[in-house]
Amino acid sequence: MKVEIWSDVACPWCFVGKRRFEQALDRFAGKDGVEVVYRPYQLVPDAPETATPHRAWLADRYGPQSVAMDARVTELGKGEGIDFDFDTALHANTFLGHRLLHLAESEYGAAVQGVLKEALLTAHFSRGVDVGDRTQLTEIAVAAGLDRDRVTAYLAGDEGTDAVQAQLAEGREIGITAVPTFVFEGKWAVQGGQEADTFLRVLEQVAAETAAEPEAPHGDSCADGACAV
User: Fold this and answer.
1) Per-position DSSP letters for the chain, written without gaps between them
2) Fewer CB near the terminus (10 Å): N or C of the chain?
3) Average of pLDDT values for 66-73?
4) Which domains are seen in the chain, by residue range?
């Protein structure tokens, strides 16, 4: 089974959803046959290259309710083992991060891409790292298992840009409008940071549906706990 997770590096619900999905996958009897791949999505594609404080950016965008928004996701994060630190978090353009994730998948495989995704989310939300900065991205990538020289050369040029742009366009074409969105076998879509039990039911249902009717189209979506544009 292939699961494509459309998400952004700067999406708190994507972090929560990742942890919950991983909990479900660990409980899924067929987990060894599941390939998880991360696909790019940018909540703020026009974010400037120079990072700014997250708190100020969110307040400017959503007003007074931004404090409650951060507080809610911080509390939810604790239950998933995530230490959200919005006081130090930086609002940054995530395109370079998506390019790195593409490099990781294409040259190192889905497992290494998953390690890098976790590292980028942690750096952004828990360590106050500027995930739009090439130097800091390089250190994150190397720690995740990528070759330093390869990453340095890759980020210095435009390699991977067209591929990521194409994947972003693909997301728009198939109707991805909020993240995280989990697409199972290219047919079933679940949106939002659902509870682990929900993800487990979906995994089991997709496995059963695929075994019974591998060519039959089917759709299933939900929309709670997602980051929307």
Assistant:
1) -EEEEEE-TT-HHHHHHHHHHHHHHHH-TTGGG-EEEEEE--SSTT--SS-EEHHHHHHHHHTTHHHHHHHHHHHHHHHTT----TTT-EE---HHHHHHHHHHHHHH-HHHHHHHHHHHHHHHHHS---TT-HHHHHHHHHHTT--HHHHHHHHHS-TTHHHHHHHHHHHHHTT--EE-EEEETTTEEEES---HHHHHHHHHHHHHHHHH-TT-------BSS-EE-
2) C
3) 96
4) 2-228 (3.40.30.10)
Write the pLDDT tens digit of every residue in 170-219.
999 999 999 999 999 999 999 999 999 999 999 999 999 988 764 444 44
Is the whole model's pTM more than 0.70, yes or no? yes
